[in-house]
């Protein structure tokens, strides 16, 4: 029990002793071989003996061989059987020993060679141990004398570099923290592209230092600042709608491009223009309503625009309309200049891309944005003009214009006509909405105006003395104030009502004329309108000295027959009436005779001049109100019909004229007079 296995014993030996064990084993094998040589050996027989060994003896499992053999013994022991079994085991043992000895002898050269290698390896290991011992000793010396100090310096240098990097990062973070102050300054200076560029760079830098805890808060702050910049940028974009500034708009567009929101900016711009139109007209009308109300009551601010227009008084209607059109002109001019800016900008960009085609993808994106902006702007023309028409229409129909003075109503027509001209130049629109609204007001006004003029004409005719109105021999209807519009050329300073119908502006459009300043709706006093009409002769005669002398010669009584000095002479008998004629009457008749003898002087009365003036006013309305021109010319024909009927009534019903057979009462004349009586006089 106290013995150990050979393997366990080998582990306790030193390496040198373990190398000696095979030598002992080799000697033992030699002795065994010596014994085995004495016995005859047959390899085949030896192999059969080895094969007859039970498998359990080759097992790696440790087991008690003695116990195993004892358990195999039969219950009744036989000495002869035991000896036979013992001899069998010995033969098996001898066969195994011989086999092992043969194998050992066979591997002996390799064993000797490997043993030499092990010995050499042992010597090398011993040398390595000596070298390591010396190295450690020298390392300790270096550590104490040099390495510790040098490595300390290197460590400090590395720490210094790290601290420098940290300091740079801290300075960058400090700069980022102070960026909001600079951003506020740039926003106050309206440097929107610079502010956005700075904010985007700060966000990029913040993402680099995101491993610092303070940067997370800074990131959110920068994002809020960027949103604030976008809000201020939207406010700046809305200012374009009323007062376009090239530099300001350029900055805004550059800012939106940096944000990558060019299309969004165009959508917002159209919303601002629509809102600007609404706010502009509301503020203008509200200002006049509050001014006329004479108090600061805020109830008007809560009214709708349509209801607010009904509170405009007649006195403030025209100034309010003029200011309304001025304000809307500013909005449309801003839109026109916006389109001009984009056209010029697109041309510059196209030229730049053609000269440098390196960035194909970027140029394609810019081309798509330009195409979108162009289509949006072109579509917005009709949309904005439609909004303008609706606002002006609401204002026009909010007040009854039937009781306006003629000049005031003509001014309203002038303004609306000019506004329709603006609309045609703006988007090529025929302004059907404005035409319909002004047509309604014009028909309503003209019916009232015509009725009043007919009453005035009736009063003129009832009080007409039918005396000759002394006018110059060079008299022409174009000299009358009402016909001045037929002579004046069409120009921006002349209202459409004062312009000839055939006049066509072949020069610049209104937008081109007023692009850099001015307003086509400015009220300009026309000095020609204030000139007095120089159509009447002085004291009833021409001022020319030659004509005066001629009249004086004609006025002499020396060559006048006596019978002609009488008031009346019977053509049949030549007798004068009993009643005497005063000299003044005779002089008045001589004047009339003189004027009748003047070849160039037209025969006019005060009523005739009045009818001519009315015809001029009606023609002026026809020039402006082309949609109701047919109604106007119909009413104008009624003026002539009424005048004709009155003249016939006063002078044409005499039986003397009926008997002359001059055809004054022809069937055609009778038909005309009957028509006038039925359609005009009886009504």
From TrEMBL:
Reply yes or no: does the keyword Coiled coil apply.
Answer: yes
Q: Which InterPro entries did the record assign?
A: VPS50 (IPR040047), VPS54_N (IPR019515)
One matching Pfam family? Vps54_N
Give the region (Disordered) as residue ranges.
Answer: 521-561
What's the name of the protein?
VPS50 protein
Q: Which PANTHER family match?
A: SYNDETIN
GO biological process assignments: endocytic recycling; protein transport; retrograde transport, endosome to Golgi
Q: Which residues form a coiled coil?
A: 212-239
Q: Name one GO cellular component term.
A: EARP complex
**Keyword set, alphabetical order:** Coiled coil, Protein transport, Transport
Give the Gene Ontology MF terms in alphabetical order: SNARE binding
* Residues in Vacuolar protein sorting-associated protein 54 N-terminal domain copies: 50-341
Highest taxon listed in the record's lineage: Eukaryota
